[in-house]
Amino acid sequence: MTNLLKRHTDEMGITTLTLSQPERRNSLSLGMLDALGEALEDIAADSATRVVVIAAEGKVFCAGHDLKEIRDQLDSHEFQLALFKRCSEVMQQVVNLPKPVIARVAGVATAAGCQLVASCDLAVAETSARFATPGVNIGLFCSTPMVALSRDVSRKHAMEMLLTGEMIDAARAEQLGLVNRVVDESLLDETVYAMARTIAEKSGHTLKIGKGAFYKQLEMPLADAYDYTARVMAENLLADDAREGICAFLDKRKPEWQDR
Question: Name one GO molecular function term (predicted).
Fold first, then answer.
């Protein structure tokens, strides 16, 4: 890993990616995006990883894009387009990763940082965490963060965040569905990793099937979604782990997953 991003995998296959540039508010510079994208690409093919946790050092989870970097390249449309395209690619990597991703949110998550939280499958925040898409305040509407945000919360709530640029607290973020749980700072790691361990105990093959199907069916009309997921379930039953899981349940024993 680079000095921008730390990576650690424990004995249960929980890989933690930690944004480690607190002096720059863990901003999503092009370098940080490249580090995160490369790590996700590697993890996608890493059989040892079952669940991913995205965390950050310092008092800010992620302040979004690095405005100093953007200011230095204001006259380069080519750079700006490359930056936002790279960010979009990384967010899609999170969604398309065949393993569940949990955001561990301590501190502030704004703009593309809020986008990162919204892109994760699950999110746990400490009580003092805050969220915003404040681009409108500096004349740069949070258009790419809008994509993830509008798929996580209702349209009117997303538009309120985008149009006002105002901060919301963790409790409000939980009400809106941006995060799953809000806990005291002392319980953040315990809650995040208990959730991760619970998921890591499942069949990796089943999780891959389920996560992929979840996001795909969301974009379909109701009848098409049911037709698609019926086929997914029928194909899922052909997997060794599905047969093992059913037999283990009926035999009242713990399943032995083969991840296939």
Answer: enoyl-CoA hydratase activity
